[in-house]
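Comment thread on ticket #2218

A.B. wrote:
> Attaching the input chain for the structure job we discussed in standup.
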Amino acid sequence: MQDLKDQGNMANEIYGFTEAELDLIKEYYVHTDYVNENMIITDIFTSQEIVDTEDELYKAAQEELYAVSHPQWKWVTS
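C.D. wrote:
> Ran it. Output below, let me know if you need it in another format.
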């Protein structure tokens, strides 16, 4: 498991980034938990409903991550 964690580290030599490049990349990191106020789980939910809601939350997080991780282009014509 530690080997996979090491491979996922951007400072790993397999990626070939310099310290300056790593500092630049770190400016784009946003470390936080994903929160979606539109989804709730209560104690009356069945196990299946909880799993389904968690799956919806996961998919919503993927969609939002996709949207924010791609450049936003703005075209202006005059």
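A.B. wrote:
> Thanks. Noting for the ticket: The chain has a mean pLDDT of 86.
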